[in-house]
Automatic annotation (TrEMBL):
Official protein name in the record: Fructose-bisphosphate aldolase
Family under the similarity heading: Belongs to the class II fructose-bisphosphate aldolase family.
Binding site for dihydroxyacetone phosphate: 181, 212-214, 254-257
Cofactor(s) required, per the database record: Zn(2+)
Active site: residue positions: 82
Ligand binding (Zn(2+) 1): 83, 180, 211
MF annotations from Gene Ontology: fructose-bisphosphate aldolase activity; zinc ion binding
Assigned EC number: 4.1.2.13
Catalysed reaction, written as an equation: beta-D-fructose 1,6-bisphosphate = D-glyceraldehyde 3-phosphate + dihydroxyacetone phosphate
NCBIfam families assigned: cbbA (TIGR00167), fruc_bis_ald (TIGR01859)
Binding locations of Zn(2+) 2: 104, 134
Pfam families for this protein: F_bP_aldolase (PF01116)
Top-level EC class as recorded in UniProt: lyase
Species of the source: Candidatus Allocopromorpha excrementigallinarum
Amino acid sequence: MALVTTKEMFEKALKGGYAVGAFNVNNMETIQGIVEAAKEESSPLILQVSAGARRYANSIYLKKLVEAAVEESGLDMVLHLDHGDSFEICRQCIEDGFTSVMYDGSKYTFEENIAMTREVVDYAHPRGVVVEAELGTLAGIEDDVMVGEKEATFTDPEKAREFVERTGVDSLAVAIGTSHGAYKFKGEAKLDFARLAKISEMIPDTPLVLHGASSVMPEYVAQCNAYGGKLKDAKGVPEEMLRRAAEGNICKINIDTDIRMAVTAEVRKFLVENPEEFDPRQYLKRGRQAVQKIVQHKMKDVLGCSGKA
């Protein structure tokens, strides 16, 4: 099997009314847990690398780990750059063998975003790489970069159509009320499904992407806090809302915080209950098991992509 692009995955997801999970990876245990879940669920899979992951582990190490996962698992999977903020970063990842890149020009003006996204598309497509872009701005924290609620902007459906036509992107990340990090909502959780429907109507053949879509599952928050954590008022996107989005034109749902939360909850519990233990293999094994468990749950019960590989 091999590293592949999202093209066929998204075509099937659009027709089938489900979404493919895009899971952020930072180390070996995370990759192993996610891939084992995909094997068990026979699910299509996107592994994505953020700027923070590249700083932490180096993209070459991560790429080699993903290549090992392909060889060991026998699965096709996508290696995706998450939130590339420059042409140079996108170019480097394409040269390193990534099969999908995201250029995030959402902080720029509409015209600047179009121009820079088009530059990435023109470089990527001749090399067989697909491109995701973003229109609209999510609130929250992404790799230590904070975007306040006042700076967040929802995606304009009319501009979404123009953006896709002028850039030629393969998929589009939209802003409909999700946000990055573990503190997504202060009050009631709300997503603008009317806006999503309008965007889907304007660009019906374009796969849409939902960022900031972790659910920050209460049981893991409670477990973290029970074993010394201080995650007050952490709240994510309810899973029933994600399932509803996946039944429409949302073909890719990004999940990162949920994985971090599951790992931290299990490692905290293990270390408190086993204070004499100092072997990282023992507590990281528990973290890896937690990753597999939560990813299988997402694939089967939320994304609807089990059995779709």
